Known about the structure:
Chain A is mainly alpha-helical. Chain A has helices at about 1-20, 25-45, 50-75, 90-110, 125-135, 135-160. In chain A, helix 1 (about 1-20) packs antiparallel against helix 2 (about 25-45) and helix 2 (about 25-45) runs antiparallel to helix 3 (about 50-75).
Amino acid sequence: MQQLVFLVVGAVMAVAAVRLVTTTNLVHGALYLMVTLLGVAIVFLLLTAEFVAWVQVLIYVGAVVVLILFGLMLTRAPIGRTAMDRQQRMLAAPAALLLFGVTATILWRSFEGQTIDFGNEVADLDRLGTELFTRFVMPFEIVSVLLLAALVGAVFLAKRD
Amino acid sequence: MPVQWVLLLSTFLFSVGVYGVLSRRNAVIVLMSIEVMLNAVNLNLVAFNTMLPSQRPVGQIFALFVIAIAAAELGVGLAIVLLVYRNRATVSINELNLMKW
Lengths: 161, 101
């Protein structure tokens, strides 16, 4: 059952990602991005990472996609059918294919025969919270300072003087 | 389920993101492609977490950090794109060659 769900979601995500980088309509691109991010959230759920999945839905599907739509609106980018590719397309496709081929081969060979056991591990929010606020409390605080800096920086950059 | 399936999917998403960054000329689409790449990395981290012998959710915590930093990056990036649009009236990264030598 999980394998079937994974295969279906993975196929949808792959198609949406390819459409995202090839579409000629920017708003459609943002919606394809949303489909991809939702697919990632579903795969997180399959991998018993409940908390990360809901954070993904909240931050990415909720905030990031809306932010990007606002960005598209405010930059008044040419919405509609326009040629949006750079001239390097013929160079970019082989580069991406090469990257995929090499990485996929290496990963496929090195993880031959290893499986994910779904029934084994229960997503334990308790354990995640304890770990986050004991062992990883220092990076957590640093990330909060980073978020504050990004907030101040974004407001400063975007305000009109 | 073989762990390779997840790894293959995330490798594919990452390569698609690389293609988007290299081939598109709208800065907002480039930012979207970067988000796809970061999500591919998160997928990998969470998949590897299920294979840890100890039951510690270290990979999930790393994924949370990546999500937080990606959100910060996108906020600042979009602010920069807006500023560039306001000053140059374009978001095409082909025309942003001021710092090119």
